Amino acid sequence: MSDFINEEHENITGIEKQAPDRITDKERNRYRDLDNVIKEYIKKPGHLIGILHKAQEIFGYLPEEVQTYIASKTGIPVSEVNGVVTFYSLFSTEPKGKYEIKVCLGTACYVKGAQEIMDTLKENLKIDEEETTQDKLFTLKSTRCIGSCGLAPVLLANEDVYGEIAAKDVMKIVREYQKGEKIEN
Amino acid sequence: MKIENIGDLKALKEKHYPLIKQRLGHRNGLGLTQIMVCSGSSCVSTESQAILRELERELDEHGLNENVRVMKTGCLGFCQHGPVVMVHPGEIFYCRVKPEDVKELVQTHLLEGRLVERMLYQEDLTGKRIPSINDIHFFKAQERIVLQNCGVINPEDIEEYIARDGYHTLADAILNKRPGEIIDTISKSGLRGRGGAGFPTGKKWEMTAAQDVTPKYVVCNADEGDPGAFMDRSILEGDPHSVLEAMAIAAYCIGANQGYIYVRAEYPVAVERLEIAIGQARETGLLGKGLLGTLFNFDIELRLGAGAFVCGEETALLHSIMGARGEPRPRPPYPAQEGVWGKPTLINNVETYANIPIILRRGWEWYQGYGTATTKGTKVFSLAGKIKNTGLIEVPMGTSLRTIVFDIGGGIPGGKKFKAIQTGGPSGGCIPEKFLDRPIDYESLKEIGSIMGSGGMIVMSEDNCMVDLARFYLEFTQDESCGRCTPCRVGTKRLLEILKRITEGHGEMEDLDILERLSLDIRDASLCGLGQTAPNPVLSTLSYFRDEYIAHVRNKTCPAGVCKGLFSYRVDEEKCIACGLCAKACAAGAISGAPKQPYRIDPAKCVKCAACVAKCPKEAIVKGSDKEAKINENAGIFSGTGSQESRAAL
Amino acid sequence: MKTPEFSAGPVVRRAGQLYDNPEKKVEKIRLTIDGREIEADKGMNVLEAAHAAGIEIPSLCYLRHINEIGSCRVCLVEVEIKGARVLQASCAFPATEGLVVHTSSARVRRVRKTMVELLLSDHHRECTTCIRNLNCELQNIADNLGIRNIKYTGEMKQLPIHNKNSFIVRDYNKCIKCRRCEAICSKVQEVNVYSAINRGYDTVIAPAFMQDLSQVACITCGQCVIACPTASLAEKECIDSVWEALEDPDKYVIVQTAPSIQVTLGELFGYEVGTVVTGKLVAALRRLGFYKVFSTDFTADLTIMEEAHELLERLERGDKLPLLSSCSPGWVKFAEHFYPEYLENLSTCKSPHEMFGALTKTYFAGKQGLDPEKIVVVAIMPCTAKKFEASRLEMGTGKFKDVDWVITTRELARMIRQAGIDFRDLPDEDYDTPMGIASGAGAIFGSTGGVIEAAVRTAYYLTSGREMDVLDYEELRGFSGLKEAWVELKGRRIKVAIAHGTGNARKLMDRLRAGEQFDYAEIMACPGGCVGGGGQPIFGTREHKEISLDYRHNRADALDRIDYSKKLRRAHENPAVKKIYEEFLGRPLSDMSKKLLHTYFTPRGESPGFDFGGEKGRFAGHVEENLHPVT
User: Fold this and answer.
1) I want to staple C61 with a disulfide (CB 3.0 to 4.6 A). Which of B368, B376, C32, C72 is the partner?
2) How many domains does chain B divide into?
3) What pLDDT is recorded for position C70?
4) In a mutagenesis test of the C interface, which of B480, B482, B484 is the best target, namely the one with the most C β-carbons within 10 Å?
5) Which candidate from A111, A123, A148 shows the least CB-CB separation from B42?
6) CATH number, residue B487
7) What does the angle CA A132 – CA A56 – CA A59 come to, to the nearest 5 degrees?
8) pLDDT of C207
9) Is any Cβ of chain B less than 8 angstroms from the Cβ of C81?
10) What residues are paired with C100 via a beta bridge?
11) Looking at the structure, do residues B130 and B245 belong to the same domain, yes or no?
């Protein structure tokens, strides 16, 4: 008998075999919050995207378990949930850093040199787009036009907007956050 | 308070009108000063809300609360000069205000009764300070119809909207008019969809009204995704009730009781204003059950996008409203036949809706007075890119691009040369100088290979590479393609790959033909508007800036010095003072030199990080094309080795 | 509405049309295609109208009534709208009165060619070693369009091939995103395994989180394989293992053929759909070197005996009703995932091929004095789910697996070709005895309605001693593929129902959940039953333009003809069955038959790998409630 047969049966019935990590109280509260969100949203049809927005607020990102949980609670097939999550760029399946640095790569910013800003950040933080630094402090992303074209090029650090920045100044902003972090600690 | 009849509306208008009147320039002796703080996204992101708080605190401190009122207002469009604060009476326009300027503003303007000269707008040419908004050319040159309330009223106060005749049109419609009459007026006005395609709005309403199926839905497309376009956002932020009112009128006309506004999650301020507006409309009974004492019910729900450009396409938007992947589907059936939940659905764009109340109020004959033969009314455009006055403007259809760019927009900063203007976002084309005098409408833009689109305009100067720009747009559409149909999913990928090859210096002349052929086929074969228009930036640049493509392919040079693979940095010997800072900054060890000798950059070692450019105190490090570098090299200036092609090109 | 499904005649059992109601009156319209004025039914799309008029429009993503999404853009035609010629996907554009269409203009041909070139530019073109070589819709279209070089080259996907499970291989690098797998899985089977994931060029059509099919709630039915135009989805082949066994002189390789193989194998050798090739099938298997050539129809008869007794026993006790058939492993896995609370209602009978395996290694081995360890049982099945079923740990007796290898109809045809056998030239031969003797009842197991027909017939005879009248089915609320009937049994009126395709099974089970009463239901995972199984011939070549799944009727009719042509038509009359009870099993539901012929089922949950409800699971203690209304 070939190996795959055992493998596939283990995958299916393996749930009982491996002792799972019980959910922590913190997690339990998050799932309770999610339950409440679903209860509220399920009253009206077509609210998967709304639920996912809220779930991402609660969990910070949308890991497989959360997606599957939403599927099982709403009756929407998990394939569909995953299909929706991976379609929209605002949903993240990876945990994010404490600060999300978003460089606007809208046309107005681009023609004013946003790519150079992005490259400088990549080089200095030693991460690529969509990646998070090892200290879990920064996640680097590009974003679609945020409509602050008058301030181009624009950079967002979480909710804070920095406008008319030059590539050579961008690391100053990042360092402010690093400093703030040290003080906090 | 519930509004139950026209009398209630009129009473509210009476109550608030004096304040509004003062903001419109009437010295009506109110004994009040009103300070309007722009709270559009652009000004919010430059701390206008801190200014607001600071103002309130200062007024409190000086005990000025009685006679001075501070309030939020929508975008005035002069974003380049934000944050903007206006003081009435006098329509005094303060720009680039910082929170720390507030003290002075209160002291000088309010207490001492003098203008704060340094914060007034300074005219570019004359250097003159201009106190009143009415004297600033940027505003004088515009015709603000859709934006009439933006910057005038507080968008978070429904009563101010009512004071501007808001909801009067709705009341008149449902109390005195038949749906057919209203649709007829819209049709006669010649209003066309402002989302981009320009479909006659009246016809759309008529088609949806004619469907013999219930329920029906009204949808507002507020998924403004074109980069560099922010017209809809400004309307939603500055005058949200105009959209709600129009949707209610539309619902009455087609027989719907439920509306949806699909808005980008990237617009938090707009979302918040809409939530407030919907809440207030419900409280006052202008949304909900039994509007104005009739049997007509209508309510609106917000649906947030989640970051997908394609959801601006109407069938994709429908899928997204229903919580699914925003993938378009073939039409027919049209949304007017099968839309949300498979039911007839009227979808219009934000700006289209915002036109409705005023057309009904002032009549179609009045509206017809603006625009060209085929395109009536005004259009809101956002100006961005290499232009002095970035911001938001509204002009009659038929205004020339030259007026927009050089008159209202103030031209190109830094004395640079105009190269092209891109209209219609990623679906549009690049328009060269020779077409600048064309009056713009849907047809004229199409003729020259672009589209009206939603109204985003990006200006390009001689510093922008058109091949790189085409690549940039393709990267955008390729990333935003939903992946459903073959030409868009695979075709745009192949287009992008060819463009990348060209910008990296690996293009062949044959690639230009393939690029053109494939672009035409993608345009022909794609399922939805996104794919059909995705090749426009390529096709328009190929036709108007073919010489730039040829320079990239044949000469391996980027004339604008943008494409990294095709230029090098060199030291301008005239300017170099041999300070050596550049050599210290260079991590690649590509710069060498000796005291009193100009420094040199070895292009073979240079990684083009631009660190030296930032460090040079004399701006002596300049971009030059690879070809120039080779010429210099041949002249014995540099000692790098070039690629085979570059040598052959010499 | 009461529509009798059949009248007395040679064909005693009809499952009815799968998708269309032929009696429906349709309005006619006229339109012009390629300069010819043609007539078409109102409601047809342009592609169908053209097809009906003998004009072929190539297509890839289109699957009639199942997938009409116009996404591959290969079926583009020019349609005249307001004087302009516009390209439209003919599969999604309605044919309307007076429409003018051009299906082969220069512009259409050019764009169509570009579309196929683009698809090929992102497709692993390894045709000569591909499992769908010469039976691939993409290959066929590329050939018809005369594509000789691909202008558009660039990145090509390199995703790992999922081939670690026992039933279906997924090669994402050959996927053309037609979404037919997704459509059939969600719209017909309602299993919802697939969805588009990611977007743009990175789009893949995959199970959630791109997991292997063995890790999600996949019922292994293989309808996606049948629907796939390329080899992106294919059966997991085990031909080589069978050859190996055949070449091993120490092994006795015994083969059994499922009922439907007799009516479908011929298609792969150029016979009309619905040709019965039983004699040649047997002859071919002998020439391949099998020690004995038996028929699963025999154990189908045995299944009928066991299941009929089980039904009577449950009716007597009045518990665990309705009895639900369990001979379709796709349906069994469907129930394990989605209706675990009804697992006790499933008949404990193993499916016929597993019964066969168990008896071969015990009864037959004993009778022939063979060492069971040296016996290799090969099952020729119409089904990918049987491959998974054979790998279930519970499907064995002692240290032996009941069935060692399951190969599909398609794999058998490949073996016959590999051996150089001229199938059409073969003589007709008979199955070996005793396990090749079967009644007509066993044969009709291969299409929907057959199991219940046969079992009720036998139960009726066992209790009354008389033969039953024809069953008179009524369609349930207009769902074709879901029917019910009343039978007098043991002085009691019992309600029986049949469903084929798990989409219909879902409807039936939801009615059950809602409190409706049934006594006995036959459920088959595949539309049409085994004749439409995931291991059956795939209609993708130029000879078979019919892309929809309607051809299943012809196969079912052929099974009915086998039944009707047999003298022996009732399971309980089968002498070999009588003998095996006398010699070995004792009686139906005896301890011996329970040990060898019956099995048990495992609840698997809708989200395997995630345990949100269990007491021992990660979520133990978390408030557990279903937030969506249960239908």
Assistant:
1) C72
2) 5
3) 94
4) B484
5) A148
6) 1.20.1440.230
7) 80
8) 97
9) no
10) C32
11) no
Higher pLDDT, B294 or A147: B294
A contacts of C619 (beta carbons < 8 Å): 23, 31
pLDDT above 80 for B625: no
Q: Report the gap between the CA of A61 and the closest CA in chain C (Å).
A: 15
CATH 3.10.20.740 fits C28-117, yes or no: yes
Which residue from C minimizes the CA distance to B487? C115
B317 touches chain C (CB under 8 A): no
- Kindly report the CATH number assigned to the domain that includes residue B51: 3.40.30.10
Q: What pLDDT is stored for residue C10 in this prediction?
A: 28
Q: In what helix (H) or strand (E) does residue B418 lie, and over which residues does it extend?
A: strand B418-423
Q: Which of C195, C611, C627 sits opposite A35 (nearest CB)?
A: C627
Among C118, C194, C204, C628, the strongest candidate for a mutation testing the B interface, having the largest count of B CBs within 10 A, is C118
- Residues B234, B110, single domain; the answer is no
Q: Does the pLDDT at position C8 exceed 70?
A: no
**Residue A36 CB partners (closer than 8 Å, separation 6+):** none
Residue A64: inside a domain: yes
Domain boundaries, chain C: 28-117, 239-597
Please determine, for residue B323, whether its predicted confidence score (pLDDT) is greater than 70: yes
Q: What is the reported pTM?
A: 0.90
What average pLDDT does the structure give for chain C?
88
Q: Is A62 an 8 Å CB contact of chain B?
A: no
CB pair distance less than 8 Å for C195 and A68:
no
Q: A17 pLDDT exceeds 60? A: no
Cα angle for residues B184, B337, B300 (degrees, 5° grid): 75
- Tell whether the model's pLDDT for residue C23 goes beyond 80: no
Question: Which of B45, B266, B320 has its CB closest to that of A49?
Answer: B320
Model confidence over C442-497: pLDDT tens digits? 888 888 888 888 888 888 888 888 877 666 666 544 446 788 888 888 788 889 99
Top pLDDT among C568 and C106 is at C106
Q: Which chains touch C (3 or more CB pairs under 8 A)?
A: A, B
pLDDT per position as a tens digit, C486-516: 888 878 888 999 999 999 999 999 999 999 9
Q: How far apart are CA A111 and CA A149, in angstroms?
A: 11
Please report whether residue B269 resides in a domain.
yes
Single residue among B413, B431, B461 that ends a domain in this structure? B461
Q: Is C394 a catalytic site residue?
A: yes
User: Quick check: is B349 in a domain?
Assistant: yes
d(CA C154, CA B285) in angstroms, rounded, equals 59
Q: Which of C137, C235, C306, C389 is catalytic?
A: C389
pLDDT at C620: 66
Fold of C239-597: Rossmann fold (3.40.50)
Chain C residues 596-615 with CB within 8 Å of chain A: 602, 604, 606-612, 614
Number of domains forming the structure of chain A:
2
Which chain A residue shows the shortest CA-CA distance from B81? A150
Is B484 a domain residue? yes
Percent of chain B at pLDDT > 70 equals 96
Which structural domain, as residue segments, surrounds residue A56? 2-87
Is residue B18 a part of any domain in this protein?
no
Give percent of chain C with pLDDT exceeding 70.
Answer: 90
CATH code, domain with B397: 3.10.20.600
| CA–CA distance, B270 with B235 (Å, rounded to integer) | 9
Pick from A148, A156, A159, A160 the residue to mutate for testing the B interface (most B CBs within 10 Å): A148
Could you tell me the residue range of the domain that residue B479 belongs to? Answer: 466-553
d(CA B61, CA C321): 82
DSSP class per residue in chain A: --HHHHHHHHHHHHHHHSPPPPPPHHHHHHHHHHHHHHHHHTTSSS-HHHHHHHHHHHHSS--HHHHHHHHHHHT--HHHHHHHHHHSTT--SS---SEEEEEE-SHHHHHTTHHHHHHHHHHHHT--TT-B-TTS-EEEEEE---S-GGG-S-EEETTEEE-S--GGGHHHHHHHHHHHHHHH-
Domain identity same for B325 and B209: yes
Residue A163 sits at the chain B interface (C-beta within 8 Å): yes
Q: What is the pLDDT of residue B634?
A: 46
- Residue B412 and residue B472 share a domain: no
Considering the domain architecture, whether residues A107 and A76 belong to the same structural domain is answered as no
